[in-house]
Amino acid sequence: QVQLAESGGGSVQSGGSLRLSCAVSGVHPRGYRMAWFRQASGKEREGVAAIDSARRINYANSVKGRFIISLDNAETTLYLQMTSLKPEDTAMYYCAAKNDVTFPSLEIVEYVDWGQGSQVTVSS
Q1: pLDDT of 37-46, one tens digit each?
Q2: C-alpha distance from residue 62 to each of 24, 46, 84, 86, 102 (Å)
Q3: CA-based R_g, the chain, Å
Q4: pLDDT in tens, 76-102
Q5: 9 near 120, Cβ under 8 Å?
Q6: pLDDT beyond 90 at 107
Q7: Please, what's the b/e burial string for 84-101 (b: 16 or more CB within 10 A of its CB; e: otherwise)?
């Protein structure tokens, strides 16, 4: 089981930037995928960005060119750098992971371990 804990959320004006961090423990070196998901009020949870142990990356179309996912070399912290934020980016953001697999999927069913979430609010 992978343990995950998000930090770094907050409030920002439209056009601003934020960086989310997720402390990670328990990944298996032989293979894993990690991702950021978000859930806006009244909407379904959606995949935002994903990375796997081969460092392949996948982004949702809505955030391409604005968000960057990265993982430190020690594989202990997952980041999501968010720029040019829009009010529609307002949501609870979750990090997620699964061991013993590869491919940076953005599908919820492909993840089993989840953090508690961090709120991001973008005002116009």
Answers
A1: 999 999 999 9
A2: 26, 11, 12, 11, 23
A3: 13
A4: 999 999 999 999 999 999 999 999 998
A5: yes
A6: yes
A7: ebeeebbbbbbbbbbbeb
